[in-house]
Amino acid sequence: MSTGRYVSDLEVGDILAPVTYVMSPFIVREYCHGVDEIAEEFHRPAPGFPGQLAPPTLTHIDKIRIYKANCPDGPGPHARIHYQFHARCHRLVPVGAELTCSGRVARRYEKKGRVYVDTDIELRLTATDELLISYQDTVILGYSPGSEPLRAEAPAA
Q: Which of 29-43, 55-69, 128-142 is predicted most confidently?
């Protein structure tokens, strides 16, 4: 499990403690307003499905929940920027369901003078452990234009 105070402390192999929550209509509504999502299935029950659905891109909130729970002091002394993500939706995410997201730091590497960290995150139904979304998040640590690049730590001998 991660013992770091900051996101920038995360190392390859760190297991991020799971976070469990209920996907509420409020979360979905506020997220949809924030990103101008107007698809009807995210604002009311969808035809052919027993209820309202959450947009797949809402999985960004899972990343934030995991980082806040496991790295309580935030990004750290080195700036962290969201670089890219890859989400694979295995099943629709029902509003009102209790969900558990968990994560693992998969890679930490340097490219063009910047340190990158890849975190693999999974979102599952708490009751059945069914995988709903698998998500890979990539962040850049220590990025600020014109700054001296932050070097990746050498592996311990």
A: 128-142
d(CA 116, CA 138): 7
Domains recognised in the chain with CATH numbers:
7-141 (3.10.129.10)
Edge-first strand order for the sheet with 15-22 is 15-22, 98-111, 114-125, 131-141, 80-89
Task: Map tokens 């101008």 to a residue.
Answer: 36
SS3 content of the chain, % helix, strand, coil (to 5): 20, 40, 40
Which residues sit opposite 88 in a β-bridge? 134
- Give the pTM: 0.79
Cα separation, 157 vs 11, in Å, equals 15
| Residues 95 and 53: beta-carbon distance below 8 Å | yes
Distance from C-alpha of 135 to C-alpha of 112, rounded to nearest angstrom: 24
146-157 pLDDT, tens digit per residue, is 555 555 565 555
State the DSSP string of 101-150.
EEEEEEEEEEETTEEEEEEEEEEEETTT--EEEEEEEEEEES--TTSPPP
Q: E strand or H helix at 44, and its extent?
A: none
Token look-up 């975190």 returns 119
